[in-house]
Amino acid sequence: MKPTRIGIVIAMCLMGAWARAQTPSVALIELSTDPDPNWREQDLRHLQTLRASLASTPGLRLLSQDQQEKLFQEPPDAGAQGFQQKARAHIKRGEAHFSRLRPKKAIKEFKAALRNLKAVFPSLADLSDLEHAHLMLGMTYQALGKRKYAEREYRMVLLLNPDRRLDENRVNPVVVDRFDRVRQRLLTSLKGSISLISRPAGARVLMDGKPVGATPVTIPGVYPGDHYFSMEAAGHKTWFGILGLQPGGLQKREVFLQAGQGIQWVRLRNRLAQAGITKVSPQDAQQLAEGLAGDWLVFASVLRARGAAHMELGIFKKGSPQCHFLGRILVRPDEMAKVGTVIEAWIGGDRTVPQSWRVVKKIPLPPQGFDPDPDPIFPPLPPAPPLVTAWYQSWWFWTTVGLVAAGASAGSYLWLTHDSGYLVEVVR
């Protein structure tokens, strides 16, 4: 390539980088309060649609979701990789002892590997090392004739990876046979349930490395045995625990999550959500914008009214003395597609929003003698019915009832005390 062409390519790259730096950065912040768990997945899809609309707008540079969540999430454990490397070294030494017929030393190494892996379990992106350590420990126990301990480790392997199969060409057929028997007993065992509650609620739950929902959650159809659990919540340290489940049983656990380094940002976001998009504090918004290093903040809140999903939108510019409420939109494809264009125009100085976004928060009462709009926004209320007292509630009805009752009592008394010639006897 000629030097002239190289210079052109470099200049174009520099111009592209400069143009991207000049594009305003936008962060999308959800401010939904008390979301309904039954609709949470659908609400998250609506927010992802909004994010896609903003990301596809050429004049905006949307901060990635991972980039935003770093501010609220607990930073990864710096020593996790070191623990995992130590665990792999223990597994390697244990396999060497196992091949040299030193089962006791092999068990010691495999247990040390499991301790290291459990210490950093929430940071493990892959559970293959944990699964392999359990398998090798089970094989070592079986070689010593400890069938019960071996089957326990094989069960742990199958709970971590239900599709795990052993190759007879690489593993002793006796081990394969025992492993398959454990699988059959596990598949035919009576399943149970596990219920988890966390403080605060809404923590993401992973069972054996797989997401199973957010707290409070009840997980049905769980195979009996020991399961690895972890809970993740913004601004809190990740919790890890092993929960055992009996066949057909129910395991309940309440977890109190400890506050982490990002708790101050989570509380700030919660404070903004409690205030509502129409009353966002500029000071709080400014602090959040500085933490995210974003030029603009777009606030979104999903709510439901009359069976339909709506979304309230607001916007804030870093350094601005106020936040602006853009309006409320009905969540449907044509309205969601407009959001990116409207936000881009607003940032560019055009402060107009579609007519369909405008919301009448409160309709004032008309003055005395005012002729209302013949086509009002809401139909007029029907006239109140006249105040008519029912006959059984009137004073004259109950007065008549009282007089009749008093006359009947007096007549009965006189008739019973008068000597009428009749003899009344009570026969017992």
Offer a few descriptive terms:
428 residues, Rossmann fold, Serine Threonine Protein Phosphatase 5, Tetratricopeptide repeat, Immunoglobulin-like, 3 domains, 4-stranded antiparallel sheet, 19% strand
The Rg value, from CA coordinates, equals: 36 Å
Indicate the percent of residues in helices.
40-55%
**Kindly, what is the distance between the CA atoms of the first and last residues, rounded to a whole number of angstroms?**
129 Å
Q: Give me the CATH architecture of the largest domain, please.
A: 3-Layer(aba) Sandwich
Q: Helices and strands: which structural class?
A: alpha/beta
Characterize the biggest β-sheet: 5 strands, mixed
Strand content: 15-25%
What's the helix count? 12
**Widest β-sheet, arrangement of strands:** 2-1-10-11-12
Which class of the largest domain in CATH terms?
Alpha Beta
Q: What average pLDDT do the residues reach? A: 83
